[in-house]
Amino acid sequence: MKAIVIEQYGSAEQLVEKEMEAETPGDRQVLVDVYATSINPLDWKLREGYMKDDIPFEFPIILGWDVAGVVRTAGKDVTAFGPGDRVFARPKLTGRGTYAEQTLVDENLLVAIPEPMSYEEAAGIPLAGMTAQQCLLEFGEITEGSKVLIQGGSGGVGHFAIQVAKDVGAYVAATASGRNQEFLKQMGADVAINYEEENVVDILSDYDMVLDTVGESVHEESFRVLRTGGRFASVAAPPSQEKAEEAGITAGFVWLQEEGEKLRRLTSLYNKGALRVEINSKHKFSEKGLRAAHKESEEGRARGKIVIKVR
């Protein structure tokens, strides 16, 4: 099978095409023909080697941890899916990811793609959508009436977070550049803040929860808009526990725990019209396409998701 791999850490130029042998599914796994995948910051951070001590994969590494496609073969104990089924998932984090024509997925992580949903839409949801959901519902414990700030509301995790929070009944503020203010409102934000011209601490106070998708540069101001006892979740940089304690809040760095049930909840939101997948761009499944997609993600200005069309 064709795969795009890295054989050493470094720039996007390390992404190269390689012929690889497709793996055989285990008893409770399926082999999926990949139709689409998407780019997440995790991909290029691993490619650069930032996480090599925490996640020591062996080369060649196939990056990518979103998949939408069709079941090719299933293990002998798989009961929920069979050949020809349209499925999507965030597979386990291994060195044999989804920048490939086929990939293995554990049965319990797979979810059926709803009929109206395209493969490109499906590929954009799993990692970013489940991350947003886990931050808000599990870590943040938001409920109807909660006041929530999304730092970086126009990105992959951010635009899903706005929609998940609104579905719960929260009051949502979100930050983005000037060009994305209208987009924040389209996603459902009650308050859209242009970080290029406005400071959140001048506008917001006594918030219950903040989700940071930007990084350490917004941590201090985020702590200041939270009420005592509020919660701060970051997917971009570990927050200072000392400063969080001083502010009287709970803060944490959230790492996705992938589960099929979490993805099924997002599917339900999509089916009832409460979840939209914004696709910033689509790239071809090639060295050139993946390199361009990685560079686009690293710039940090993509609205929604960056998708790779494999088939």
From TrEMBL:
Residues 10-308 form the Enoyl reductase (ER) domain. Pfam families: ADH_N, ADH_zinc_N_2. One of its GO terms (molecular function) is oxidoreductase activity. This is NADPH:quinone reductase. It comes from Marinococcus luteus. The lineage of its organism: Bacteria, Bacillati, Bacillota, Bacilli, Bacillales.
